[in-house]
Every structure is written in C-alpha cells, then in structure tokens.
Prior knowledge:
The protein is of the alpha/beta class. The protein has one domain: 3-Layer(aba) Sandwich (Rossmann fold), CATH 3.40.50.300. The strands form two sheets. It has a six-stranded mixed sheet, with helices on both faces. A four-stranded antiparallel sheet has the order 2-1-4-5, covered by helices on one side. A hairpin with a 2-residue loop joins strand 1 and strand 2.
Amino acid sequence: MLTVTSLTKRFGSQPVLLNVSLELGSGQVLAVLGRSGGGKTTLLKILAGLEAPDDGQLYLLGQDLRPLPPNERQVVYLYQEPLLFPHLSVFENVAFGLRIRRVPEPEVQAQVTAMLAELDLLDHARKAPHQLSGGQRQRVAFGRALIIRPRLLLLDEPFGNLDAQTRADMQQLFLHVSRQHQISSIFVTHDSREALTVGSRFAYLEAGQLTSFAARADFVQDPRTGITSELAFWRSVEAQR
C-alpha cells in the first residue's frame, strides 16, 4: 500500500533522514521506535506533505505523493495534542470532514452518531472540547480522523500527554478501531512497550537511519530497542520480592 524508497532530508547541513525505505501493507500498523531527535516526526511530516524531502520516492496505492498537496493525499496526521476546534461541539468536530466534503445531512447524522457510539462518546456529543478529559479529547480526534476514511493514518506519539492508565486504555482503543476500519497506520513512539502493544510490524529509527524488522522477535532482541534489558530488569525485581 505504502512504499517509501531512499528518502533523504537535511535541514541546512544537518542530515535528518538518510536513505529511509519502508513498505506498509493494507491494514497494517508500523510501530516506529526511536529516541527524540532521531527523525521520527520529520518522516511523518514528509508523508503528510508538511515537509518536502530532498530526495526519494513516496507511493501510496501506486500514486506518487510528492506532487500532491496535503489536502489531496487522504493522509491524516494526529499529534500528541488533539488540536480540536474549541468553538465546535464534539459532534461537530467529528462531523467537520464530512461537512467540508458536502456529505448530505442525513448521512452526516448517521455516520457521526455511529462513530461516537463506537468511541463511547455519545453522551458527550454536545459538549465543548474544554469540558472533556485528555483521553476523551484524543478519542474525538480519532473520530474526526477516521470519519473521512483516510488511506493512511500517521500518529506522532499521540498518547504521550496522558496518564498511564488512560494511555493504556487509548492503546487498546486504537487497536480496536484500526482493526475495525482496516486503517493502515504509522505509529511513532519512544516507548518500547507501546510499540509492542500497537504494532503489527516494527522498525527502529536512529540518527536518520531506519531499520525494519522481519519479525517481532528480531525487534525485541535488537539491543537498541532496550526491550531485552528492560525485561531482565523487571525479572530481577520480581525475583527480589
């Protein structure tokens, strides 16, 4: 579905992405793990059309993305901050993409109501964003993204501002929703447990260089991910109890 080949990006003399290549199949979630400053956000911004690459190829369903402006790519980019419209209700935030596409009102009502029910937000439909919790606002952002059926969903550490329990709940919700709608996604995070939870495929991005893994076990065993040492630490803690 998505093919990225030899993607390169520099800011001045500073290389940010170096010959990055990846493939993503329909309905897959590619979890990209990496530390801050490794190029994860730049990769997503290039895919979304918010940054231009210096070199490389980007194809989505066989279509060259490079000449397309962001609004024609059918790609949605979700940030850590939900960025909802403060003057619109939950219902109208989710309905926004349908309305600008001039979807008939009965269809808007039906689709948005169904989406809010799926996200457990029906009781909050008439509330303003400031009346919601952080997790609820992120659910609204998901609903607004998914209602337009994007070809590709990009997630930039979307749960980083949430408390541990809400973050875990949102990870499970994301898994449910992405499977239900068969949305292809790239999910970047610096949390190895989150990567393992949400990903169906895995990659590691460090200093602009991307390593893709053929299997979950290869991802876990690579020392750069830190997963093996973290597991060993928790085993030692349990042994001392």
